[in-house]
């Protein structure tokens, strides 16, 4: 028993060591691949020093500088592009910083991308050197409520590979939030359902419900229950439930309901979103119409649909035809057998009757 226990401890030790070293190798490989690291220099205007991103206080029309250190991790030169992006709500209900995923919301004014001025948008580091990059934050002239949210991006410049469209984006991002008051910004209270429609997205037939957060605050920890019905009907055609949904300040997102491979029919529909967080509830509805032409176009252009080839249709028709002929033949044969059996049964009955009569005559 003691030997087994010792063997178990030895195996556990080697497993832990191997996992630890594999993590070290992965981190080293990733760092070596990028060739640089970035770290923020906490400014005096930092509202919360415990946060690992910039959360700074601003005053109207008063510029301020923030700094970021870029450190080389290899001898070869690395070229880095520096720019900013606004916070958006991603398709899966997360706060994202990939600006091309969504259009700017109508409620967003003076976004981070308009406030950030990078003095040196391209920096080259090499041979393990470290450089400090200065970034100017220029707040709007007018006072604003809530927060402005985005990120500073430090992307690896892959030169010709990027021009040829074969490069993979590698970058570091440091969050950037600005505020005049420093008040809580995760307690947004307003959600709007601005539009509902049928469309094609990523090649799929979908019903899209455009959900908007018009406030300069985030809305987090949402549970969303969506139901799609025909207008004036209680029968649920499609439904979707998600948890831990979040929305960036002054943003919108298309809440997606996948229609699947079935044909999308035209008609009048009603979509209902029941949303709740730990402290608030929303009940949103929107009517929309799918016209005959829209349904025809969407069903035709969708990449995800069941297509039966011509030969398959002809084969199915032929099989059906032969099945009908075979069924008729089997029914006719069975009818013939029943008639022959009935004749045989009657003949045997007459034979028994004749024998009985003959026996009776003999006894007389």
Automatic annotation (TrEMBL):
This is Uncharacterized protein. Keywords: Membrane, Signal, Transmembrane, Transmembrane helix. Residues 1-27 form the signal peptide. The keyword Lipid metabolism does not apply. The lineage of its organism: Bacteria, Bacillati, Bacillota, Bacilli, Lactobacillales. Residues 36-154 form the WxL Interacting Protein peptidoglycan binding domain. Residues 164-300 form the WxL Interacting Protein host binding domain. It holds the Pfam family WxLIP_HBD. It comes from the Bacteria. The chain crosses the membrane at residues 311-332.
């Amino acid at each position: 028993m003691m030997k087994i226990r010792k063997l178990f401890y030895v195996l556990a030790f080697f497993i832990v060591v191997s996992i630890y070293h594999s993590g070290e190798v992965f981190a080293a490989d990733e760092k070596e691949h990028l060739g640089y690291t970035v770290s923020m220099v906490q400014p005096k205007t930092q509202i919360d020093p415990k946060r690992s991103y910039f959360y700074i206080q601003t005053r109207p029309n008063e510029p301020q500088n923030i700094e970021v250190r870029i450190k080389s991790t290899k001898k070869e030169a690395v070229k880095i592009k520096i720019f900013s992006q606004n916070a958006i709500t991603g398709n899966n209900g997360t706060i994202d910083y990939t600006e091309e995923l969504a259009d700017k919301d109508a409620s967003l004014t003076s976004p981070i991308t308009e406030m950030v001025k990078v003095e040196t948008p391209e920096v080259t580091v090499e041979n393990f050197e470290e450089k400090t990059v200065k970034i100017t934050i220029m707040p709007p002239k007018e006072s604003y409520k809530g927060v402005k949210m985005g990120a500073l991006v430090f992307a690896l410049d892959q030169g010709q590979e990027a021009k040829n469209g074969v490069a993979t984006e590698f970058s570091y991002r440091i969050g950037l939030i600005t505020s005049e008051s420093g008040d809580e910004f995760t307690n947004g209270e307003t959600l709007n359902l601005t539009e509902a429609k049928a469309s094609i997205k990523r090649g799929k037939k979908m019903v899209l419900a455009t959900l908007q957060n018009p406030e300069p605050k985030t809305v987090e920890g949402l549970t969303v229950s969506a139901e799609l019905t025909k207008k004036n009907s209680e029968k649920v055609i499609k439904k979707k439930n998600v948890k831990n949904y979040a929305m960036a300040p002054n943003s919108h997102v298309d809440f997606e309901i996948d229609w699947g491979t079935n044909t999308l029919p035209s008609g009048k529909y009603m979509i209902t979103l029941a949303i709740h967080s730990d402290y608030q509830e929303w009940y949103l509805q929107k009517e929309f119409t799918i016209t005959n032409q829209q349904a025809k176009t969407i069903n035709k252009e969708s990449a995800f649909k069941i297509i039966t080839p011509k030969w398959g249709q002809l084969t199915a028709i032929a099989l059906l035809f032969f099945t009908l002929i075979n069924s008729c033949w089997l029914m006719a044969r069975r009818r013939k057998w029943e008639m022959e059996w009935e004749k045989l049964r009657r003949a045997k009955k007459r034979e028994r009757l004749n024998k009985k009569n003959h026996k009776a005559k003999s006894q007389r």
